[in-house]
Fold this sequence. Notes:
It is built from four helices and 18 strands. The protein is α+β, with helices and mostly antiparallel strands. The protein folds into two domains: 4-124 and 257-273, Diaminopimelate Epimerase, Chain A, domain 1, CATH 3.10.310.10; 129-248, Diaminopimelate Epimerase, Chain A, domain 1. The model has no long low-confidence stretch (mean pLDDT 97).
Amino acid sequence: MGGIEFLKGHGTQNDFVLLPDASGRLDLTAERVAALCDRRRGLGADGVLRVVRAKAVGEASEGEWFMDYRNADGSIAEMCGNGVRVFARYLIEAGLADDGRFTIGTRAGDRPVVVHPDRSVTVDMGPATITGTSVTAVAGSPFSGVAVDVGNPHLVSVLDDDVADLDLRDQPDFDHDVFPTGVNLEFVNLLGEGALRMRVHERGVGETRSCGTGTVAAVAAALHLAGTDTGESTVDIPGGRVVVTVERGAATLTGPAEIVARGELDEAWWAAAGA
Ligand SMILES: N[C@@H](CCC[C@H](N)C(=O)O)C(=O)O
């Protein structure tokens, strides 16, 4: 095999290695994903976005391209809101999308996107569904939360104390009976009407500087706690700001998406990383 092309990109500092693989030939093992995402022995990233034709991997999508998303630990997840924006930015820059409106297939279903002239991207995120309540504990301190399904699982806890003071270096506890496949944990401060601050501990990654599906979950949970299911909010995360709209059965996410670099993986490194 010749050199393997890669790109590096981020959306509000949630960063990804992109692997263009139109015909689905790459042997993308969990070991290779973890090696790529390692910030010392690899390129470093929160996740990998394999850019593959939907037909090549047998995915039913109205769009031509499928986002094969993997977490930094090599696990597979259904959706990544920041990843979809970066994926869309790549398709435009690579000349693989005709105009600024197209659909990207994901494991959580099709996600229509609009790429704006100011380089931000809006994603139709599908429904954000409140599924119940549960608890988490950070360094022994318990917090109750609202469980939200955005294609992937989330638990959103609204705190009175500043989320900046949380120690999210270790995996917070959660109820494995409620979340048998793990959960993304969001911690939120309400800043006033239509404005949230959030930190997140992502399933399969650890603390990240942003999580797009998490921001949608956070806004849906905050609206639910306020007794409504419709509204718009900014969400400030450590990596920047996004805007989320939620209404019954539909949500959108708007934020920046950047491609930072492109290059070729060393073949010997790739071979060894898969061993
Ligand atoms: N960072 C992503 C979410 C990635 C998947 C998540 N870690 C999971 O396992 O569900 C986002 O921007 O939504």
